[in-house]
Amino acid sequence: MAVPKRKSSKARRDKRRNNVWKLDMPAFSKCPQCGELKTPHRVCGNCGYYKGKEIIKKEA
Q1: How many CB atoms lie within 10 A of CB 18?
Q2: Which of 36, 26, 53 is nearest to 45 (CA)?
C-alpha cells in the first residue's frame, strides 16, 4: 500500500480541497418577451412569461 513520504501541511491539503466545493454561478439567458436576464427554465420575474405563455399576471 502506498504511504506518503511526508505529512501534507494543512495549507496544501486545503488548497487541494477548496476547488471541489466551489459553486458555479447560475447561467442567465434573455427573456424573449421583455429582454430581461433570467435563469433558464424559470418564469421571468419581470414580465411573468415562460415559453411564450403568460404564467403570472403582472400589472403594467
Answers
A1: 9
A2: 36
- What's the mean pLDDT in 51-60? 84
Domain boundaries, the chain: 29-60
Which H or E element spans position 50?
A: strand 49-50
**CA–CA separation, 40 vs 54, rounded Å?**
16
pLDDT reading at 36 higher than 90:
yes
Sign of the four-CA dihedral 47, 53, 56, 60? positive
User: What is the rounded CA–CA span in Å between residue 38 and residue 58?
Assistant: 16
